[in-house]
Amino acid sequence: MHTTRDITALIDDRPIGRFQKITIFLCALTAFLDGMDTQSIGIAAPFIVDSLHVPRAMLGMVFSAAILGAMLGALFVGSAADRFGRKRMLMLSIVVFGAGTVATSLASSYDSLLAIRFLTGIGLGGAAPCFLTLASEYTPRKRRAAVTSMLWAAFPLGGMAGGFLNSYVIQHFGWHAIFVIGGMAPLVLVLILAVLLPESPSFLLGARRQQALAGVVSRLTGAPVAPDTPFVMSEEKIPNPSFRLLFTEGRARMTLMMSVPFVMAFGTLAVLVLWTPSLLRDHGLSPADTAIVIGFHGLGALLGMATAGHLIERFGAARVLVPALVLGAVCTALVGASATTVASASALLALAGLFVGSGASGCIALAITSYPPGIRSTGIGWQMGMGRMGQVLAPVLTGALLTAGFRSGETFYVVAAAPLVAAAFVAVSSLRKRRAGPAIAGQVEPSR
Taking the model in full, what pTM does it have? Predict the structure, then answer.
């Protein structure tokens, strides 16, 4: 008779080992490629407008088609991952967005471009809750917020690297090459994940895949584990995961209050990445220059997202996220007022990325720590879906403002209101939770 092994305690009581680092790194690679694709369509947009002979205002629908797909992908693939496996659904999502990215270069009409970007978005959105959940389950509980925010920082890192790379690619190979390169990379990654990426331990336990679970524990400990060893996980168990559980058992208020900052922060980031290249052309900046500006935005977002979780663990959610989002609003407004040169635009976009990116990444870290393993992909999928909803609505509303006659500067003033709303909801949520218990998504308390 073998001694029962608690997998939760095994992960929580040990430093992050080589096996876990590889798992987190592979998940970060997926986020990196997601970030590359998101900024690529923004940089290529002016060329696509010229190629397909459509008005600039119609770009809003092109941007939003992929993000609408991402919203649906996050909602439904996240839920499916809790039922059918996080690794399996992650690999399927990557194949979809890799193939869709390559197909973007072949679009011959506006309608075909919309359809391709929508399908690509389903893969992009579906991947996020899968890799976020996988990485979190292999991370000690006390380090989840920091590791999650560092993991999601790979998204702006991909945007930054893609911005600088695409500046070169556009000049030497044309805009089509952006999507060929950006689509082949994820297809190669799938082959690597098939060999090296483990499945979620909570899913393996629930599916009673004893031998696979023993293999995971063996790789965690570096020692052989008998296949018939009894395993348990001490975190809350959810026998039948569904969206309904996000709004029952005391989770409804938390889920809804957390959704608003997701919508506002992610919507702001979408406008900054997708519309800035086109709007900065009004100030005389060339497409190659705007690619560099977007690269600096990615750098700022990278720094903000990488540090948000650590700061939340140390100081608490409200003390970090409220001032970050307020400063993000100020910098977003200044983009409209003062981004008239490459230098000023780069500096302001970097600061906006730093502060708004901190808010977005902090929301993800809070969501990761809020839901038990059995519905973690479902919960993350819901919140990422809400973030994607913000990314759907924001570019369309920005296009509507331009159609209504708003100038570039005035448009950014309106966009700057979104981070302020996000900050207000974080503050109100924190005050409510202080009266009843922990802070918003309350497992993340300031360290003492």
Answer: 0.79
In a domain, 331, yes or no: yes
Beta-carbon contacts of 398 under 8 Å, excluding residues fewer than 6 positions away, are 60, 271, 275, 411, 415
Q: Which amino acid is at 93?
A: S
Can you tell me the distance from the alpha carbon of 304 to that of 325, in angstroms, rounded to the nearest whole number?
11
| Residue 405 falls inside a structural domain | yes
Whole-number Cα distances in Å, 19 to 5, 145, 216, 280, 436: 18, 19, 9, 45, 39
Which domain CATH number covers 84? 1.20.1250.20
CB 273 within 8 A of CB 323: no
Q: Is residue 448 part of a domain?
A: no
- Is the pLDDT at 58 greater than 80? The verdict is no
| pLDDT above 70: percentage of residues in the chain | 92
